[in-house]
Design a protein that fits this description.
Layout: H1 2-11, E1 27-30, E2 37-44, E3 47-63, E4 66-81, H2 90-98, E5 110-120, E6 125-134, E7 137-148, E8 151-159, E9 181-190
InterPro entries: Lipid/polyisoprenoid-bd_YceI (IPR007372), TTHA0802/YceI-like_sf (IPR036761)
Organism: Maribacter caenipelagi
Keywords: Signal
C-alpha cells in the first residue's frame, strides 16, 4: 500500500489548468497556489493509490499567447492520500510516503520543475523539456502542455528510481511478488493564474 502511494504521488505532479488574461510579451504569470492542484497516482502489482500535493509557488512565462517557460515548486510535506479513508491505512501510507523510503520530506521538503525548452507542436500544444528535482536529485523530463483559452493542462510520467526512490521496486529487489511497486508514477497539475 505504501509502495503504491509513492507511485501515485508522482502521477499527479505536472498537469496544468491556467486561467490568464492576454499576457504582455515576455510576461511572467504568477500561479495562484490556493486555487491550483497537483495530483499523483502510483501503481503497484495489486492496484494503485492516488492523492494530492500542494503547490508552494510557480509561474508560466508567456510571449503574447505563446508559452515560453515556467517554474514550479511543490510542497512535499503536504502529500496526502485521497483513495483511503482515515483509519483504513491513510495515515500510515502518508507517513511512509514522507519517510526516507520515499520522498524524505524532512530533509527534502520541496520538489521543483523548471522548463528548459518549450517547442510549439501546434497553436495549443507544446512539447516541454524540464529539469525535475526530487530529493535533491535533478533529472530531465518531457511533457506535453496543452493550452486552450484560460487553461493549460499537462501530465508527466516520472521514474522514481532516478531520484533514489527504490523502495519496493522490482528493478532493484527480487521476490517482491504482489508487494512490488512500479517505478513510474503519474503527476497532473492544474494551475490557476
Amino acid at each position: 500500500m505504501k509502495k503504491s502511494l509513492l507511485s501515485l504521488a508522482f502521477v499527479a505532479v505536472f498537469g496544468f489548468n491556467a486561467t490568464a488574461s492576454t499576457p504582455i510579451d515576455g510576461e511572467k504569470k504568477e500561479i495562484k497556489v490556493s486555487e491550483s492542484t497537483v495530483t499523483w497516482k502510483g501503481y503497484k502489482v495489486t492496484g494503485a493509490h492516488n492523492g494530492s500535493i500542494n503547490l508552494k509557488s510557480g509561474h508560466l512565462e508567456m510571449n503574447g499567447k505563446k508559452l515560453t517557460g515556467g517554474e514550479f515548486v511543490v510542497d512535499m510535506t503536504s502529500i496526502t492520500v485521497t483513495d483511503l479513508e482515515a483509519g483504513q491505512g491513510k495515515e500510515k501510507l502518508e507517513g511512509h510516503l514522507q519517510s526516507a523510503d520515499f520522498f524524505g520530506v524532512e530533509s527534502n521538503p520541496t520538489s521543483k520543475l523548471v522548463f528548459t525548452t518549450v517547442k510549439a507542436m501546434n497553436d495549443n500544444s507544446y512539447t516541454v523539456t524540464g529539469d525535475l528535482t526530487i530529493k535533491g536529485i535533478t533529472k530531465p523530463v518531457t511533457l506535453v502542455v496543452s493550452m486552450f483559452e484560460n487553461k493549460a493542462t499537462a501530465t508527466v510520467k516520472v521514474d522514481r528510481t532516478k531520484y533514489d526512490i527504490k523502495y519496493g521496486s522490482g528493478s532493484f529487489f527480487d521476490n517482491l511478488g504482489d508487494k512490488a511497486i512500479y517505478d513510474d508514477f503519474d503527476l497532473v497539475v492544474d494551475l490557476a493564474l
